[in-house]
Amino acid sequence: MPEGSNPLPNPFLQERYDQLWVQSSERIRSGKVEIDPILAQGQSDQRRGMTLLFRPSPRVQEQVAECLEEIRQLEPDQHYYHPSELHITFLSLFSASEDHEAIFDRTEEFIAAVAHCVRAFSPFSLSFYGITASPAAIMVQAFTDADRLNAARDRLRDELCARGLSDGVRERYRLEVAHMTAIRFRHPLRNGAAFAQALEKMRNCDFGQSEIDSLELVKSDWYMSRVVTQPLHIFKLGVA
Q1: Confidence (pTM)
Q2: What is the pLDDT of residues 183-230, one digit of tens each?
Q3: Residue 183's beta-bridge partner residues?
Q4: Structural domain tally of the chain?
Q5: Which domain holds residue 146?
Q6: How far apart are the first and last CA of the chain?
Q7: What DSSP string runs through 170-203?
Q8: What's 43's domain CATH number?
C-alpha cells in the first residue's frame, strides 16, 4: 500500500475531504452506515442516467484495486467497484432514473452542447491521494485545480441551460470536489471499528497521478456497472 506526502496539495479540496471524513468516520466506526436498498436486495438497477466523466489511468486503477482487496478481507459483503468502473464525475447531465427515455431521445443535443464547451478545456493532471467517506460510501480523494475544474463545470451548466437541457443538471447537487467512489455499503458492517481503523491507514495512501486529456459521455445505471455502461461519445479536450 503506497504512502507519502500529498503530491498535489490543494487546501480547498483537502478541507472538503476532511470535513466529509470527520462527519462520517464515527458513523462507520459505530456501524451506523447507510445501506443502499437496491444493492442490499441484489436487484438489477433499472435506472439509467447520462454522465460526463473522466477515468483514472490503468496504474491508478491497479493501486486502488490493491488497497480495496485489503479492505475486502475485513468487509467482504460490501459493493466494491471493479477497476474499470472507477471514474470521476465531471457533470451528471441527467441523474439515473427509471423515467429516462425522453432524455436519451435528445442525446445528439447533449453531445453538441458538450462539444461546444470542451474545445475551451485544456488537458490537466489529477492526483489521487488518500480516502474519505460518506455514510453511504468510501471514496478516493482526487486533487487538481478546483477553481479551474468548477469553472469548466459552470460553463457547461450555462451552455446546457441556454439550450434547454439543464433540467437533469438542476436535480443533482453542485459538485465541488473530484472524488472517486470505490465502495458502497450493501450490508451492515461486520466490525465497524476494525473497518474504520483500516480506512484511517488509507488516509495517507498515494495512488498516483493521471493525465486527463478526454471526457467520456456515458449512459449507465447508478453504479456505473461495467455490464450496463454504454459509451455515447468521447471528447478530446482542447480540440475544435
Answers
A1: 0.90
A2: 999 999 999 999 999 999 999 999 999 999 999 999 999 999 999 999
A3: 80, 138
A4: 1
A5: 11-236
A6: 41
A7: HTSPPP-S--EEEEE--S--S-HHHHHHHHHHGG
A8: 3.90.1140.10
